[in-house]
Amino acid sequence: MADDKKLTTRTEDFSAWYNELVLRSELADYSPVKGSMVIRPNGYGIWERMQRTLDDMFKATGHQNAYFPLFIPQSFLSKEAQHVEGFAPETAVVTHGGGKVLEEPLVVRPTSETIIYHMFAKWTQSYRDLPIKINQWANVVRWEMRTRLFLRTLEFLWQEGHTAHATEAEAETEARLILGLYREFMEGWIAMPVITGQKTESEKFAGALRTYSCEAMMQDNKALQAGTSHNLGQNFAKAFELQFQAENGEQAFAWNTSWGVSTRMVGGLVMTHSDDNGLVCPPRLAPIEVVIVPIWKSDEERARVVEAAQKVRIELTEWTGRGATDRLRVTVDDREGVKPGAKYYEWEMRGVPLRLEIGPKDLEKGSVFSARRDMRAKAALPMAGLPATVATLLETIQGDLLAAAKARREANSHRNVTSYAQFKEIMEGPGGFVYTGWNGDPAIEAKVKEETKATIRVIPDPEFRSAEAPRTCLVTGEPAKHEVIWAKAY
RNA sequence: CGGGGCGUAGCUUAGCCCGGUAGAGCGCCUGCUUCGGGAGCAGGAGGUCGGAGGUUCGAAUCCUCUCGCCCCGACCA
């Protein structure tokens, strides 16, 4: 009975823990259609904050939002060979409309490269029309066989950026710029440290020249690909005749990039920080940063503490120390008939970063009692100057979450692994990120995947590479072409 | 698609083997007492037992078919 209230613990069953947490914290719920889900206000609130932050970043770097339609002519998907090969198996196709069989079936977009570059082609004549830098917030559908709340569902929400440039160098700069923005967002807001780098041929986006990605480590030591940015080269430009007249008068194909992050990041947030008591949400993304729980015995006390709690809420929300538009997000839980302890558990499950308790004793002392969600540390805070104190504390929590996640990742990263036997031992046991040399042969990558389920998550960017580069390939012992990071992945 | 679970009240489930008026806990509603870590008492509402067929005097229970969901594997943000 008391056990009903507790989550399955992470060590018992990580997967069950995750599912129960997502449902119990009311981030999402299963919808009647297998593999799809409803994002509830608590989860959508996090997504809205993600959207707002990223949207500002995109606009600050010269991108504009637009919207392209859900339905794509089936023939469009086929125009880029690798693209159709990659996505055809997982598309939903509309064959009927208005009670009639359609002349050409419509594909529900699994991603929008085809329709967008078709339109870009229409809008581009001269190099003066470039670059085009567009972003859209949309839903996409990929008919996955195996689904998981937030991490892989039939339909999900994301943003997809699409750009067209006159030169390869410019496209490359763009793809890299966005990768940097993603990293900044994931570390600064989700407090989820990521490793950036390039995907191998077998893991790159269908139709891309190169794919860059942000890889995070979850608490079960598995990797989560949290965002990707692609240099598409001229592959789509050629398929969709996206050409322009260059300064020298010659016709040339444009260079494209595309990049996206999705509601999957909410799953990453959950699996990076949360504990056996429920969600731990980083303050910057928390729909509610502070919950105030008034504590009373008598009706007379109730009136006093609730009034005091509301005054504190107003003082906090009216404070402009973080800027006029970035107010503290505070709620008061003054429900009657629910004991304070029950409220604590409930808000902890929902991931609210900071709880303030206000009871008669606190009023006497001119203080409020605080409890941090992340480490469950408690302290009295003086009422005087409370907004600034709270804001600072929230930033401290934000920073501590990132530091803790980074420490966990490093503690579960293995460098200097040169023996394949040792590699297998790690993958069969604790898992984690394993840095090794690789001869660059896709066949070796496939063999390791077959034997261990681990894949090359990324060829890391220089700052993540080991101080001393591995000299030999993990499997063959041949000279290493790259240092790579292996892990089992979501 | 292969393997494993499971469909009984909003949730978790007992009952099924061995057929005989559908039970409990949590949650919900009302009232009183409570309230600094998951409250107590009293009263109350809530079920075509996933669906269809069959066997039977009688089916949640036995038989056949079917639908759906979850988990684990082969594809993927």
What does the secondary structure layout of this molecule look like, with pairings?
Blueprint: H1 14-24, E1 28-30, E2 37-39, H2 41-60, E3 64-65, E4 71-73, H3 74-78, H4 81-87, E5 92-97, E6 100-108, H5 113-123, E7 132-141, E8 155-165, H6 168-188, E9 195-198, E10 210-217, E11 223-233, H7 235-239, E12 243-245, E13 251-253, E14 255-262, H8 264-273, E15 290-294, H9 299-318, E16 330-332, H10 340-350, E17 354-358, H11 360-365, E18 367-372, E19 378-382, H12 386-411, E20 413-414, H13 420-428, E21 433-438, H14 442-452, E22 455-460, E23 482-487
The protein binds one RNA strand of 77 nucleotides through α1, β11, β14, α10 and α11.
Describe what this molecule looks like in 3D.
This protein is of the alpha+beta class and 490 residues long. It folds into three domains: 14-70 and 115-273, Bira Bifunctional Protein, Domain 2 (BirA Bifunctional Protein, domain 2, 2-Layer Sandwich), CATH 3.30.930.10; 288-392, Anticodon-binding domain (Rossmann fold, 3-Layer(aba) Sandwich); 413-487, Translation Initiation Factor IF3. Helices cover 35% and strands 26% of the residues. It is built from 14 helices and 23 strands. It has helices at 14-24, 41-60, 74-78, 81-87, 113-123, 168-188, 235-239, 264-273, 299-318, 340-350, 360-365, 386-411, 420-428, 442-452, and strands at 28-30, 37-39, 64-65, 71-73, 92-97, 100-108, 132-141, 155-165, 195-198, 210-217, 223-233, 243-245, 251-253, 255-262, 290-294, 330-332, 354-358, 367-372, 378-382, 413-414, 433-438, 455-460, 482-487. It has an eleven-stranded mixed sheet with strand order 3-7-8-14-11-10-9-22-23-21-20, with helices on both faces. A five-stranded mixed sheet has the order 16-15-17-18-19, sandwiched between helices. A three-stranded antiparallel sheet has the order 4-6-5. α2 crosses α6 (168-188). The chain is globular.
